[in-house]
Amino acid sequence: MIQLKNLKKSYGDHHAVNGLNLDIKANQIFGFLGPNGAGKTTSIKMITGIMPPTSGEIFINGININENHILCKQIT
Domain coordinates of the chain in residue numbers? Predict the structure, then answer.
């Protein structure tokens, strides 16, 4: 399961992702759709641990990946 709570990513005054909340259950198929610049790639990079969020929390199988980067790499 992937859970995002109030996920945000900012570059200076530009908000690439602003307050994303999401629950993806195990075995659920999910996709990101939106126009260029909507924050799709940025969101995926934060979920996979490639890029840290400005604020908010990311949980994978109940584990906060912001607090446990090593375990996140093993899961993803």
Answer: 2-63
Q: What is the value of pTM for the model shown?
A: 0.84
Q: Is the pLDDT of residue 75 over 70?
A: no
Is the distance from CB of 24 to CB of 44 less than 8 angstroms?
Answer: no
Residue 3: which residues within 8 A CB-CB, separation 6 or more?
A: 22, 23, 24, 57, 58, 59
Question: How many whole angstroms separate alpha carbon 30 and alpha carbon 40?
Answer: 12
Task: Give domain 2-63's CATH architecture.
Answer: 3-Layer(aba) Sandwich (3.40)
